[in-house]
Amino acid sequence: QVPLVESGGGLVQAGDTLRLSCTASGRTFSNYAMGWFRQAPGKERQFVAAISWAGGVTTYADSVKGRFTISEDNAKTTLYLQMNSLQPEDTAVYYCAAAVFGGGSRVARDYRYWGQGTQVTVSS
């Protein structure tokens, strides 16, 4: 089990910045590819960004490319999602997820472990 916990969500205005964090209760992500997904009300869960288990490859959804950045700390105990220039369409519950090894898939079913999510609301 990898108990993932997200934090950092909140209510912001369009154009603002937020940084989400995800930890695994002191465990490391060394053997896991990590991803961020989001789900808006009435919509399916959507891929946002991923980082390979070795940390060298990052992947982004077209809708967030150039605005969001996924990263890990050097100890690989915290996953981040830096979100700049937030827009109302970014409003969703954001989830972090872990997949054993892997290159950072865009597909939700490839991830074994999920956090409970953190709400991000962007007002116009």
Describe the structure.
By secondary structure, the protein is an all-beta fold. The protein has strands at 5-7, 10-13, 18-23, 32-39, 46-51, 58-60, 68-72, 78-83, 92-100, 113-114, 118-123. Helices cover 0% and strands 47% of the residues. The strands form two sheets. Strands 2, 4, 5, 6, 9, 10 and 11 form a seven-stranded mixed sheet that branches. Strand 7 and strand 8 form a beta hairpin. The radius of gyration is 13 Å and the shape is globular.
Low-confidence residue ranges: none
Q: How would you state the average pLDDT, rounded? A: 94
Class based on secondary structure composition and strand pairing = mainly beta
Q: What's the total count of β strands?
A: 11
Name the beta content range. over 45%
Specify the biggest β-sheet: 7 strands, mixed
Helix run count: 0
Oligomer: single chain
Secondary-structure element order, as H and E?
EEEEEEEEEEE
> What overall geometry do the principal axes of the alpha carbons give?
globular
Radius of gyration: 13 Å
End-to-end distance, in Å? 39 Å
Helix content: under 10%
Helices, strands, pairings?
Layout: E1 5-7, E2 10-13, E3 18-23, E4 32-39, E5 46-51, E6 58-60, E7 68-72, E8 78-83, E9 92-100, E10 113-114, E11 118-123
Parallel strand pairs: 2-11
Antiparallel strand pairs: 1-3, 3-8, 4-5, 4-9, 5-6, 7-8, 9-10, 9-11
What does this entry show, briefly?
This protein has 124 residues and is an all-beta fold. The protein is 0% helix and 47% strand.
